[in-house]
Design goal:
Layout (H helix, E strand, L loop, with lengths): L3 E9 L2 E8 H6 L6 E7 L8 H18 L3 E10 L2 E9 L6 H18 L6 E6 L10 H6 L4 E6 L9 E9 L4 E6 L2 E6 L3 E6 L8
Parallel strand pairs: 5-6
Antiparallel strand pairs: 1-2, 2-3, 3-6, 4-5, 7-8, 7-11, 8-9, 9-10
Helix pairs in contact: 2-3
Length: 206
């Protein structure tokens, strides 16, 4: 899926609230797409290492997420153009709505402001992993075991393939994922894949 078209309104200098819809929404008019609630602000912090910052944010966010009856899917700290984005992806069994994302954003904002885990300005983004969600953690492979997934390899395999799909069998202790497609079983190191994602968006525009 593509990235986002932004709808929003700045209400304070350096701070804003935005609703972000996947740009496939603009093309198709479909309502079953990923959305994000984004609260932008110039947060300042104490910790420069992004990996350590992400772990700190995860530890801060998890009890808030679980206290709201949600699941924490992922935390990412990513650069786009000149800006940095702290992305907290939350999930639940039923579809998320913007009110839930906004409620979590308002709950986590003062906690992040107090802990200041990132040593630079950034935008806070809260949203659903949505369709085609990426598997980036071992627990993702366990949660999506038995579902159809797709992987894009960094380099072609011996058969010249870079894109594979099949039913996810899980992730072993050595970091190898296994997909089964019919009678074919394909095992690969996830570190050799550009991404592994849930393949629930293949018929989005059919």
């Amino acid at each position: 899926m593509g990235f986002f078209a932004v709808w929003g309104l700045h209400f304070v200098r350096g701070c804003g609230i935005f609703l972000l819809f996947d740009d496939d929404f603009m093309e198709s008019g479909l309502s079953k797409v990923r959305f994000l609630f984004m609260m932008g602000a110039n947060f300042m912090a104490k910790q420069q290492n992004s990996g350590g910052a992400v772990k700190t944010v995860e530890a801060l966010a998890r009890p808030v997420v679980e206290g709201m009856g949600l699941r924490l899917w992922d935390v990412r700290f990513e650069k786009e153009g000149p800006d940095w984005f702290l992305r907290i992806l939350i999930d639940r069994d039923e579809p998320l709505d913007t009110d839930t994302c906004e409620a979590f954003s308002r709950a986590i904002d003062p906690i992040l402001d107090e802990a200041a885990p990132i040593d630079q300005s950034y935008y806070l983004e809260v949203g659903s992993p949505g369709l085609g969600r990426r598997l980036t953690r071992p627990e993702h492979y366990e949660a999506l075991k038995g579902q159809k997934c797709a992987a894009h390899l960094i380099r072609p395999d011996e058969a010249g393939r870079r894109d594979i799909e099949g039913i996810l069998q899980g992730l072993d202790a050595d970091g190898n994922a296994t997909l089964v497609n019919g009678e074919e079983t394909y095992t690969f190191p996830v570190k050799m894949a550009g991404y592994v994602k849930l393949y629930d968006d293949e018929n989005l525009f059919d």
